[in-house]
């Protein structure tokens, strides 16, 4: 069934989102879809083909879900006459629910890990605030929601060490010792805050957001954009977490310690991602019997 029987919809307008970061993210996805669609009639099959194209292209499930949400809101924005049509909205909801986005079967490889040198290069060539956030992600191994929701009152400096209390998955509260260097923490305070620092303010305060913090979509977009421009490869925010864990492993830390740092409930999760077991040919030669 065509979503727009009375209208031949061939391009989508950008949704009017109140949050600037969300608006920019949706605009990016809408523009990419319009370029791909080439003024073809927009139908459920056409949208499903686009989502499949994103999957084949290598986009992750989370990214495709954001694109799916942007397209749905773009259709509503492009058909203002149907904004209050309950029958149409019901059909639209049903159609988009039937468009499934399979979870990415993620297995970490070297291409998803940035070296310390690559991180330094990236940070030297990005805007100051983004650079500080990249350093914080890499040094802590925090997830996006964990880092962006840190409030100043959650940070404790003692004996030249910074401890940060964060909310992990399923609402679990944990305190991470030596989260990242105190020097970095001080630079963050100086850059993101004025002279009057309020304990309840987010550490990475975003004055342009109603919520007061940076959105997942904005960080994904910016880090992806700058990593592609500077390093020639697309990296995501989550790749910084993987890079943190992989760096610890290469430095000689044991899997149980890394699992604790990342708050993995099951140590096998850590082992699955970060133990890249490859047989050394020299070792095989010692074992082989001619």
Automatic annotation (TrEMBL):
PROSITE patterns: TYR_RECOMBINASE (PS51898). PANTHER family: PHAGE INTEGRASE-RELATED, TYROSINE RECOMBINASE XERC. It comes from the Bacteria. CDD domains: DNA_BRE_C (cd00397). This is Site-specific recombinase, phage integrase family. InterPro entries: DNA_brk_join_enz (IPR011010), Integrase-like_cat_sf (IPR013762), Integrase_catalytic (IPR002104), Integrase_recombinase_N (IPR010998), Tyrosine_recombinase_XerCD (IPR050090). Pfam families: Phage_integrase. Keywords: Chromosome partition, DNA recombination, DNA-binding.
């Amino acid at each position: 069934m065509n979503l727009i029987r009375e209208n031949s919809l061939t391009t989508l307008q950008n949704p009017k989102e109140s949050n600037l970061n969300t608006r920019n993210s949706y605009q990016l996805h809408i523009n990419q879809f319009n370029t791909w669609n080439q003024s073809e009639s927009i139908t459920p099959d056409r949208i499903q083909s686009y989502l499949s194209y994103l999957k084949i292209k290598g986009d992750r499930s989370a990214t495709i879900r954001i694109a799916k949400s942007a397209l749905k809101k773009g259709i509503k924005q492009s058909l203002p006459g149907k904004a209050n049509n309950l029958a149409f909205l019901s059909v639209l909801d049903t159609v988009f629910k039937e468009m499934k986005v399979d979870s990415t079967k993620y297995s970490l490889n070297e291409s998803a890990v940035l070296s310390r040198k690559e991180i330094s290069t990236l940070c030297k060539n990005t805007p100051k605030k983004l650079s500080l956030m990249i350093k914080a992600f890499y040094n802590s191994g925090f997830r996006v929601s964990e880092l962006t929701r840190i409030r100043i009152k959650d940070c404790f400096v003692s004996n030249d060490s910074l401890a940060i209390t964060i909310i992990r998955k399923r609402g679990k509260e944990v305190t991470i010792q030596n989260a990242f260097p105190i020097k970095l923490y001080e630079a963050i305070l100086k850059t993101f805050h004025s002279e009057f620092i309020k304990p309840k303010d987010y550490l990475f305060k975003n004055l342009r957001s109603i919520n007061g913090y940076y959105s997942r979509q904005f960080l994904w977009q910016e880090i992806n954009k700058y990593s592609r421009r500077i390093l020639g490869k697309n990296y995501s925010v989550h790749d910084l977490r993987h890079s943190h864990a992989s760096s610890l492993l290469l430095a000689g830390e044991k899997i149980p310690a890394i699992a604790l740092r990342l708050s993995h409930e099951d140590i096998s999760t850590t082992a699955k991602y970060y133990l890249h077991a490859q047989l050394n040919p020299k070792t095989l030669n010692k074992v082989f019997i001619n």
